[in-house]
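FAQ

Q: What does a record look like?
A: Structure on top, sequence underneath. For example:
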């Protein structure tokens, strides 16, 4: 884990770095406009990990119509992976969601993303469903949930 790692709310000025991490992390990245939309609608659920004044990871969440939290995207710059940054981002967002009265959080993850699946399972997320053809290439995603206790 990075000693000088700082997790904070994302700012508009972070979006270029966030988008570059997204593009380098996923085969089907969200358009940059999606990040701006979530920053406007759910600023408290959009966090970045900063190391030496550079954004090295982010997590973006929202609240669904049923009041549950939703992790939209989580990624860490490739050269910073394996250092616990994704875990710290996820735990930080879960804490903010709990403080805002959210009791359950869900996410979708590629059935082929072993690293992400291992992280989520280690933090108490359970597979509760399968979304077939979730990604543009026709691959599937697991739906995972976690109960947030106070």
């Amino acid at each position: 884990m990075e000693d000088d790692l700082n997790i904070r709310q994302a700012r508009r000025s972070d979006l270029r770095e966030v988008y570059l991490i997204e593009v380098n992390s996923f085969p089907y990245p969200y358009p940059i406009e999606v990040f701006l939309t979530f920053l406007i609608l759910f600023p408290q659920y959009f966090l970045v990990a900063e190391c030496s004044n550079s954004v090295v990871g982010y997590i973006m969440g929202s609240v669904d119509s049923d009041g549950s939290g939703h992790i939209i995207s989580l990624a860490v710059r490739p050269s910073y992976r394996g250092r616990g940054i994704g875990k710290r981002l996820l735990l930080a967002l879960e804490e903010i969601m709990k403080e805002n009265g959210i009791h359950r959080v869900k996410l979708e993850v590629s059935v082929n993303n072993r690293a992400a699946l291992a992280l989520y399972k280690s933090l108490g997320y359970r597979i509760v469903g399968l979304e077939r053809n979730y990604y543009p290439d026709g691959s599937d995603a697991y739906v995972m949930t976690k109960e947030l206790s106070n």
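Q: Is there anything notable about this one?
A: The radius of gyration is 14 Å.
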